[in-house]
Every structure is written in C-alpha cells, then in structure tokens.
Amino acid sequence: MDFYTIIIVVALVFLIISLTLFGVYYRTFSLKPFPETQDFCPKLWTVDSSGNCINPTTDNSYNKLNSIPIDTPGKMSNGFSPNDSGWGLYSGATNSICGKKKWSDKNNITWNGVSNYNSC
Q1: Within 13 Å, how many C-alpha atoms sit on residue 55's CB side?
Q2: Strand partners, 53
Q3: 34 Cα distance to chain centroid
Q4: At a CB cut-off of 8 Å and minimum separation 6, what does 114 contact?
Q5: What does the domain layout of the chain look like in residue ranges?
Q6: pLDDT at 60 over 70
Q7: Among 45, 54, 60, 73, fewest CB within 10 Å belongs to which?
Q8: What is the pTM of this model?
Q9: What is the pLDDT of residues 7-18, one digit of tens each?
C-alpha cells in the first residue's frame, strides 16, 4: 500500500467513527423549551407583599397597561396574580406558561421567559 491509500483508509475510518458518535449523541439529545426560566412578573412590573404583579405607575413605561383586561386570571385593580389557576385555561392554553404567553402577546407586554417561550 502506498502512502495515499493509507491516508484515505485512516480518514475514512475516522469519518465513520465520528459519524457514528454524532448519530448516537443526536439520538439521545432532547430539545428543551427556551428559555428554561421565567421571571415572576412582566418586565418593569413589581411584586407586592402578597406575591401579585403590580402594573408600573410611571407614565413613560413601555410595559404598562392602561387598565388590566377583564379576562386576566387573578385580576386585581392594579395588577394580577401570576399564581392563579386560571392561567392554564386562558384562551385555550394547555398550561399556565402558555396562558401567560397568550396574555402577554395579546396585550403587547414583555415578560422575560414567557413572551419569548417557544414550546406552546
């Protein structure tokens, strides 16, 4: 065997081993929802002592609602409860994070970990 034949055989063996390892890794790899964590309340909203999300009071806040929509689960006069059981059923959602995502999309609210959630 000449030098070039040996190099080609070694490269082919290395390629086969690499592709096999990649296939095994890919088969056991599972996609996780992104992002893995979510903020408790929408961006710039505050949490009161009862664990409710309170609408920002500053007029120039881009993430402020003029009034909390009537269909908001756990609705209060100035905010909502993020732990309300109604989030799981909001607008036909399959779980609470998808309900929160639908609500934040509908009301144009930025909520880290919710409005950018990709598994609904």
Answers
A1: 19
A2: 47, 80
A3: 5
A4: 38, 39, 42, 97, 100, 101, 104
A5: 1-30, 33-120
A6: no
A7: 60
A8: 0.69
A9: 999 999 999 999
